[in-house]
Amino acid sequence: MPNKHLNPEGIDYKLFTPGPVEVPEWILNEMGKANDTHRSLAYREMHQSIRTNMQKLLSTKNEILIWANSGSGIMEACVRNLVKDDEYALFFTCGAFGDRWASMAKSNGKKADVIKVEWGLGVSPELVKETLDKADKKYSVVFITFNETSTGVLNPLDKIGPIVRDYGALLCVDTVSGMAGTLIKMDDWGIDVALASVQKCFALPPGIAVSAISDRAFEKAKTVENRGFYLDFLSLQKKGKNDEHPITPPIPQIRALKVDLEHIIERGVEQYAKDHSERTQLIRDWAVKEGFEIYSPEGYHSQTVVAIKNNENGPFKGDPALVAKFVDAMFERGFKIVNGYGKQLKGRNFRIAPMGWVTTEETQQMLDAATLAVQDALK
Ligand SMILES: Cc1ncc(COP(=O)(O)O)c(C=O)c1O
């Protein structure tokens, strides 16, 4: 039986949300297959295949860990495994998820300095360089968000990575909503931890997360006390090297990730990312044609989620109620998109994300519906 979700109008709606996203039926089918245990050969083969293909995806030789938690778990793990209590960490934040990472450090008792960029803007390489050059203390780890889902901003990690590497700190990057949908050259860019949840550009249901971690980061973790049990880099590394997991992981999701990665590799890592860029470009073009502005500045546009401003001179004249009506009208027309993030951005913008395996054709259908939904909202 086809696996569908229906809106109140009885229409099979499609998700254009920034995670969780539309999951193709072939992924759902994979999850429904019979399980073996996590100590079986069948499991080890899946684990091994994911490690190999993830390295291809990220252009890295670094170790791949599979986590039985969402992306936030790895974010907390980075803080606990890499920052000693008497060291300082530096966070660059430009939105809600960057802010959350910095607050995780503080709630784990770590010393963290936070450089906040105004929401809607990106973290420039110049800002990173200037901050590190002028620092009155030595930072052991730098934390940054690659693709800030709350604001639709993509930070230039290809330029920021080498600056942090030159300075001598470890670099942890939240690529939760960027990985796979945007090309990442982990080794060339000098990233020590790249982490992601699977409910974004991998198009799996939520539940597991993945990371690539450099040898430098594992070496550092060996010197950090109180890393805990569940989120310990070293225990996951030790078991992972034998394609095993320290605890009982969600096997159906891992099976789906294995097959998903095979499809991504078959499509081509660059092509899969290009598919995302082309779809987000279509959305930005539509928004501008309708009289909206894009929230992110030129050069910092996310390639996986578009945040569209409810500008004063745009169709909704800055009225937050009309964004809500538009989002509802889209749902009635069979497409789920989302309002602006949290209290700060609700009504001030809205977001559309063509992540995963949605096609250009489906994106165009969604935009045709959006043109009509703008008129619905204005009625
Ligand atoms: C950029 C970013 N970081 C972190 C997270 C948190 O990920 P999770 O919900 O998988 O823990 C999200 C979730 O939307 C995100 O978009």
UniProtKB/TrEMBL annotation:
<feature type="domain" description="Aminotransferase class V">
    <location>
        <begin position="38"/>
        <end position="297"/>
    </location>
</feature>
<keyword id="KW-0032">Aminotransferase</keyword>
<keyword id="KW-0808">Transferase</keyword>
<protein>
    <submittedName>
        <fullName>2-aminoethylphosphonate--pyruvate transaminase</fullName>
        <ecNumber>2.6.1.37</ecNumber>
    </submittedName>
</protein>
<comment type="similarity">
    <text>Belongs to the class-V pyridoxal-phosphate-dependent aminotransferase family.</text>
</comment>
<dbReference type="InterPro" id="IPR024169">
    <property type="entry name" value="SP_NH2Trfase/AEP_transaminase"/>
</dbReference>
<dbReference type="InterPro" id="IPR015422">
    <property type="entry name" value="PyrdxlP-dep_Trfase_small"/>
</dbReference>
<dbReference type="Pfam" id="PF00266">
    <property type="entry name" value="Aminotran_5"/>
</dbReference>
<dbReference type="InterPro" id="IPR015421">
    <property type="entry name" value="PyrdxlP-dep_Trfase_major"/>
</dbReference>
<dbReference type="GO" id="GO:0047304">
    <property type="term" value="F:2-aminoethylphosphonate-pyruvate transaminase activity"/>
</dbReference>
<dbReference type="InterPro" id="IPR000192">
    <property type="entry name" value="Aminotrans_V_dom"/>
</dbReference>
<dbReference type="InterPro" id="IPR015424">
    <property type="entry name" value="PyrdxlP-dep_Trfase"/>
</dbReference>
<keyword id="KW-0663">Pyridoxal phosphate</keyword>
